[in-house]
Amino acid sequence: MKVTSKETPKKIKYTYIENNSKTICFMLSGSNYLYDKPLMYYSKMEMLQNNFDVVQVHYSYEPTLFEKDVEYFRNVIIEEVDSVIEEVLATREYKEIIFLGKSLGTIPISFKYANNNTSQNTKLVLFTPLLKIDGLYENIMRSSNEILMIIGTNDGHYEPNKIREIQMKPNFTLIEIARANHSLDVEPINTTESLKAMTKVNDALHYFIINE
Questions:
Q1: For helices 191-210 and 38-49, what crossing angle results, to 10°?
Q2: At 209, is the secondary structure helix, strand, or coil?
Q3: Kind of pairing, strands 146-152 and 96-102?
Q4: Which of 10, 70, 121, 136 lies deepest, with the highest CB count within 10 Å?
Q5: Domain spans of the chain?
Q6: Environment class of 95 (CB within 10 Å of its CB; exposed 0-12, middle 13-18, buried 19+)
Q7: What is the DSSP letter of 80?
Q8: pLDDT band at residue 117 using 50, 70 and 90 as cut-offs
Q9: Bridge-partner residues for 6, per DSSP?
Q10: In sequence order, what DSSP letters do the residues of 112-178 get, joined into one string?
């Protein structure tokens, strides 16, 4: 396994973990939920356990960015993430691509890669997607890719009507975590139930990525 810290010409840093695999997972964190947090940490472990290559994109934004027009900050994030993905895919050919995003990271996946026609088999993993962002829900509903979506019922972006529509889509695997918040921690604070939720997430991810 080779681990390299890199930077694109646009000054976007990323970590590239290479296992000489034909499958790569691009990981896109939340704004404050970074790669050392449970969902992202154990997702990386799951990918490495299966000997996949992994890229973690290290973006960082001032809070004022999110005060701007939704389309503006959406395009900023997409452009920066895309600079990493294009650089990586220019150096090696992969048969399968997995895009895994948490919260903010679900924006570029939903608006750019959910309907991207590529020669590679592409899967999408959306942890706590921002379903209230204008256009995000509509974009993922148009996608024909296999999608794993995991969201808590106490998440501020949980919208029952949209969830019911998503449940009807055959290309979606939807996991709802009862009473879980935007970090997928069960409320009120419950360590045991939160650990069970994490196990449920990891099991769903495992079966999704290895096609069992």
A1: 40
A2: helix
A3: unpaired
A4: 136
A5: 2-210
A6: exposed
A7: H
A8: low
A9: 14
A10: IITT---SSEEEEEEES--TTSTTHHHHHHH--SEEEEEEETTSTT--HHHHHHHHT-TTEEEEEET
State the pLDDT confidence band at 182, using cuts at 50, 70 and 90. Answer: very high
Point out which residues pair with 44 in neighbouring strands.
none
In angstroms, the Cα distances linking 205 to 40, 119, 123, 196 are 12, 23, 11, 14
Give the whole-angstrom CA distance, residue 104 versus residue 128.
9
pTM score: 0.96
Tell me what the pLDDT averaged over the chain comes to: 95
Architecture per CATH, domain 2-210, reads as 3-Layer(aba) Sandwich (3.40)
User: CA 98: distance to chain centroid?
Assistant: 9
Q: How many helices (H) and strands (E) does the chain have?
A: 6, 8
- Cα 193 → chain centroid: 23
Q: List pLDDT tens digits, range 8-46.
A: 999 999 999 999 999 999 999 999 999 999 999 999 999
Q: How far apart are the first and last CA of the chain?
A: 25
pLDDT-derived band at 203, boundaries 50, 70, 90: very high
Q: What is the dihedral angle through the alpha carbons of 128, 132, 133, 135, rounded to the nearest 10 degrees? A: 110
